[in-house]
Amino acid sequence: MGYPFSLTPSIDVTANHPFSTRRLLLVAAIALTLASSVVRAGILSGTWGPVRAGEPDIRVYAWSKETKHLYTVIPATAGRYALTVAPGHYWVFASLEGPGAPVLYAAYTSHARCTYASRDNAAKAPENCESHDLTEVAVGRVKVDHIDLTDWALDEAAASTINTLLGRPAIDPYDQTVRAAPKFSEYPSPPSSYEATIAREAYGYHETDKPAAQAALTDGSAYAGHWTLIDSSCGASCAGVALLNRTTGEVSYPSVLNPLPEALPCESRARLQYRRDSRLLIIKSNAGKSTPGLVALDFFTLDEASGTLRLITRQNLPDASIDSRCNVTDHATQP
Fold first, then answer.
1. Tell me: the pLDDT tens digits for 16-30?
2. CATH homologous superfamily of domain 42-180?
3. Residue 213, SS3?
4. Is the pLDDT reported for residue 279 higher than 70?
5. What's the pTM value of the predicted model, to 2 decimals?
């Protein structure tokens, strides 16, 4: 039985038909253009840490300065993170995560950039490596790597900003500084340091330091296995410290210890802290005329191969008076 109409619709594809090949191609081209104009996401990635042994994991945040949106992720890989965000400009930071975790922040700062640049000669370090303020990161439609969250010594303004972004109450900046301070146990001396053969003669010393250098060879090590620090005179109102390698007998005069920085009002000279089982050395001094009323803590680690001291970080203990902070270093650097 026939039907007066067709059950299968058809389109007459001719030049004059509204659904002609030409017009279908035009529609397809417009659709492809619109699809390609959709904003694709970018990816922030980098390393995080070091987190002290026994402390909880971290949560990473990226704050969009354009949309005021806070992106966040708990890294699934130890020591690395990746966070998908929309293109824009961001502050990137992290906080300790977990029940009972202390309020402590790390962030991407100029200091963190310098830490990475010291490991990669191709990376350009910023002009001010001592800045611990939040550094803006531009994200496009590609992956942005090496946004490392390794600076745990944030300044008061940065910690306050993060608190505000996370909706948290203000924290004591002094407490933040103390928690972030490097610990002796994080920079252990290698076991071989304690078994080294002791040299018979010291050399390389200033003539006035000869008695102290020779005596130090037999008095025993006090720093980083087989090293000893020796008081050195550099004038009537000047104090310095020499570094003796008891294995070779060589005496050197690191520039960071000669002369020592300005002492606090409650002390006769800048105080050094060190231990025989650690390569960490701390200098506590007056932060200087540019930041009156603050205690400066400079943290160095010893490169045993070259006998040089490398700066890890500097912390200016905020608020209160110098006199009330005269004994803080003992607190801030417990193992």
1. 444 456 665 665 555
2. Carboxypeptidase-like, regulatory domain (2.60.40.1120)
3. helix
4. yes
5. 0.49
